[in-house]
Structures are given as C-alpha cells and as structure tokens.
Amino acid sequence: MAKNSTKDYFGLSRILSIILAIIPVTSWILGAITRFKDGHIICGLVRLIFGWNIIWILDLVLMILQGHILKIF
Questions:
Q1: Is the pLDDT of residue 45 over 80?
Q2: Which tops the pLDDT comparison, 4 or 32?
Q3: Closest CA to 23 of 60, 58, 50
Q4: What would the mean pLDDT of 36-42 be, rounded to a whole number?
Q5: N or C: fewer beta carbons within 10 Å in the chain?
Q6: Nearest to residue 21, comparing CAs of 55, 53, 66, 56?
Q7: How many angstroms separate the first and last alpha carbons of the chain?
Q8: What does the pLDDT look like over 57-69, one tens digit per residue?
Q9: Do residues 30 and 20 make contact, with C-beta atoms less than 8 angstroms apart?
Q10: How distant, in Å, are the alpha carbons of 26, 32, 45, 46, 67 from that of 41?
Q11: Measuring CA to CA, how many Å separate 27 from each of 6, 17, 24, 41?
Q12: What is the percent of the chain where pLDDT is above 90?
C-alpha cells in the first residue's frame, strides 16, 4: 500500500527539499505555494510578504531537523 506523503515541497525527497530550502528565492516561492496548496491563504500571503527574512531561517532549520517547513496554523 502506498504511503501518503505529508512532506513539504510537493513530496520531494528530504535531500532535495533541503537543497531547495537553502536557496532563499526558491524557499520563499515554494513555501508560499505550499501554504496556498494547503488552503491557508493568509499564511501564504504572510510568507510572500515576510518570507525572505526570519521565516526563511526557521524554514531552513526545520527542514534540516524535521523535514518540514514552519507551520503556524
């Protein structure tokens, strides 16, 4: 039975997701798209506005340690 992936960045492998999270522009865009895809419009907009600073650093740390990006709600 196939396992339903709950990883961020469209279910990509953890190594590829970490590489994409290291690059600020891709992390910013993919983080916003991921939140919009999850149905969290406000969170996606917050990521588009503030995703280039502290959110990027938190996403990078969480992607390395836990395999997912910051999800406030």
A1: yes
A2: 32
A3: 60
A4: 90
A5: N
A6: 56
A7: 30
A8: 988 898 899 888 8
A9: yes
A10: 19, 9, 6, 9, 22
A11: 17, 9, 5, 17
A12: 10
Distance CA(46)–CA(34), nearest Å, equals 12
pLDDT at 31 over 70: yes
Structure tokens at 19: 């590489």
Give the rounded percent of residues in the chain with a pLDDT score beyond 70: 89
DSSP string, the chain: -PPPP--TTTT--HHHHHHHHHSHHHHHHHHHHHHHHTT-HHHHHHHHHHTTTHHHHHHHHHHHHTSS-----
Say whether pLDDT at 5 is over 70: no
The letter for the amino acid at 7 is K
